[in-house]
Amino acid sequence: MMRFEFFNPTRIIFGAGSVEQLGDAVRHYGKKALLVIGGGSVKRSGAFDRAVSSLEKAGVSVVEFSGIEPNPRLSTVKRAVSEVLKSGCDVVVGLGGGSVMDASKVIAAGVYYEGDLTEMFVRAERKQRLPDRALPVVTVPTLAATGSEMNNGSVITIDEGGERLKTFVMAEVLYPRVAVVDPELTVTVPPDFTAYGISDILAHVTETYFCNVEEFPIQDRFAEGIILTLLEWGPIAVRDGQNVDARAHVQWASIVALNGWIQAGIRLLAPVHMIEHTLSALYDVPHGAGLAVLNPAWMRFALRSAPGRFAKFAERIFGVTGGSLEDRAVEGVKRFEDFLKTIGCPTRLSELGIGDPDDATLQQIAEDTLKVRRDREGRLPGYPALTKEDIIEILRLAM
Amino acid sequence: MMRFEFFNPTRIIFGAGSVEQLGDAVRHYGKKALLVIGGGSVKRSGAFDRAVSSLEKAGVSVVEFSGIEPNPRLSTVKRAVSEVLKSGCDVVVGLGGGSVMDASKVIAAGVYYEGDLTEMFVRAERKQRLPDRALPVVTVPTLAATGSEMNNGSVITIDEGGERLKTFVMAEVLYPRVAVVDPELTVTVPPDFTAYGISDILAHVTETYFCNVEEFPIQDRFAEGIILTLLEWGPIAVRDGQNVDARAHVQWASIVALNGWIQAGIRLLAPVHMIEHTLSALYDVPHGAGLAVLNPAWMRFALRSAPGRFAKFAERIFGVTGGSLEDRAVEGVKRFEDFLKTIGCPTRLSELGIGDPDDATLQQIAEDTLKVRRDREGRLPGYPALTKEDIIEILRLAM
């Protein structure tokens, strides 16, 4: 019988035009905001000006911090922490995609973190030291993908000491106080990145679904509900980016896919994300594109040990019937991969523009992944747990 | 396009045996707990002793307040508020079903409420004055039904000034800080009340589902997921009360049915609950039993104006296909009513042991309901909005 604790205190303000309410939301938490952004697309789209205008109208002054990378780096986060300490900001606003929001959370916690910031992150070889205090964070997503706007996680690339290790932290103090979610801010996202976002959302759901090994039935139904909605509305958002209804449904999917609602009672292990993190740390490929390649490959590997669960997935999501359990399991994965292709995602490593990795690279990806997380037997946790050789086999299945 | 705000800060500690963690949960919020209970079943089941022992072990002293009625009355709540003021309790623990938890919330807010406590509640003829402060509340449900353990609502019967009006309040300060949810505490609930609880949960979900008129697709899928789970596990919980897995699935269903997750983006109007509140204020019938009678009757009435939505319900829940849209809509309601019958719920007024109401009583039920809530045209809000005559027709459809 499942046992769990659930807690998510983030307030959501959702709807077209809600960015106008940003200032009102932020002024309860601070008077001087560090406004964290990425490479400048929010300036081109007008989102930045609207956010600043709303903040200033509410009496909140703004210090801009730009330049968060697509796979955000700890060195950049550290520069932002210095900026907060120098300028005296008392609240952090993250306006952007998952990278910007993830970085904002660590900036907010970094202000109070004593000692080396690298110790905040999961790493197999040593004990993690969680942050216990953070400035208030308000998130404003401009992409439907990571769900970072309403969760307590952050994925960061450690780029110091000659290495490049993409790892993560989850801590209660990292929950944003408010997420201002305006689907209109996502209408300028191009079709390819819209599709990568959908791939990311789907991976959050499938990684949860295939970890529901104790059979917690409502959680399965919720997960299936998100996938079915994405199959219906995802292609519309890709094809017709201006369709705000489709954008809203995909955005809500991204939030509920990783805000803990479908994870309650399930030990989320996320092996596909772990392998993808290594891949995108190495090649800087978009996270959702990497997942579209690795997720079906992992499924082809994992269905051998849990054909029943994959057959259920095939039946409930794609209405697959007939044949043996194994036949249905295989067919479900095939249809899942087909869906990713139809929305324009790559599903093979060669389509990522990085060529097929050679043997040494395969070894490195597997080893770097296990540097972040491994169980006592040295395997990557998951169902099934993965040895180094298993990870390499999954990568080969993605070729 | 939907717009909404969502916020639910209640922490859930879920699992068999979790009542042992009650003291640890409460001591963060206070040192002296008012332990609110109902008529004594928690003493017979041993839950009371386990709760007290856990509280005392954590250094929390306990003041008992017993005697909350099944349809809790304001006069009783007021006595409890006096008890808190006299004894100096700084936290309120509600151990029981929905009545006890609802009463606990209003007790906690009543301590700080200035002026007449009746003004806290919804009433058509005057403006409601919401509470803005409350003592911390911790809930420990012993019945899977109302979902009160993780929401900000409370249903109270005003029993003063010669009237008996069952009404409600929803306010942000009423969210419990923690819900300690131990499905083992529900194994002693007899089959009839287990079934009434399931009827209540189903009504929360169907009232939400039939208010999703702007077509917010994930919310439909989530709602359907809860119903499908109850159809599968509800009968097992009724038949085999000792099955802790079944109890856990029904308990989790009760929580997610009314903690805002499926209501996000939907204006919940709950006309069936409104009519049932009047019925149970008048006759003191169990809330879930009253709902089992009124919900299918309301559905038979409402499907005339929204056959498409009811046909979708029939298809997705019961796999009904073929025939006209109207045929499928009618068939879905019939199957829903049949399910309630199979778990032992009454589905007609005459089965409630109150006889069929006469014309004067029908008039009174309709009028009392509209005293709590009515729109500018004097109708009970819902899809469709209901005139006094409509409410009487629904009651007749329940005969």
UniProtKB/TrEMBL annotation, chains A, B:
Gene3D superfamilies assigned: 3.40.50.1970, Dehydroquinate synthase-like - alpha domain
GO terms for cellular component: cytosol
Keyword Transmembrane found: no
InterPro entries: ADH_Fe/GldA (IPR001670), ADH_Fe_C (IPR056798), ADH_Fe_CS (IPR018211), BDH-like (IPR044731)
Domain Fe-containing alcohol dehydrogenase-like C-terminal: 194-398
Entry's transmembrane regions: none
Molecular function GO labels: alcohol dehydrogenase (NADP+) activity; butanol dehydrogenase (NAD+) activity; metal ion binding; methylglyoxal reductase (NADPH) (acetol producing) activity
Signal peptide boundaries: none
UniProt keyword annotation of Kinase present: no
UniProt domain Alcohol dehydrogenase iron-type/glycerol dehydrogenase GldA: residue ranges: 9-183
Keyword vocabulary terms for this entry: Oxidoreductase
Family: Belongs to the iron-containing alcohol dehydrogenase family.
PANTHER family, A to Z: ALCOHOL DEHYDROGENASE YQHD (PTHR43633:SF1)
Full protein name: Uncharacterized protein
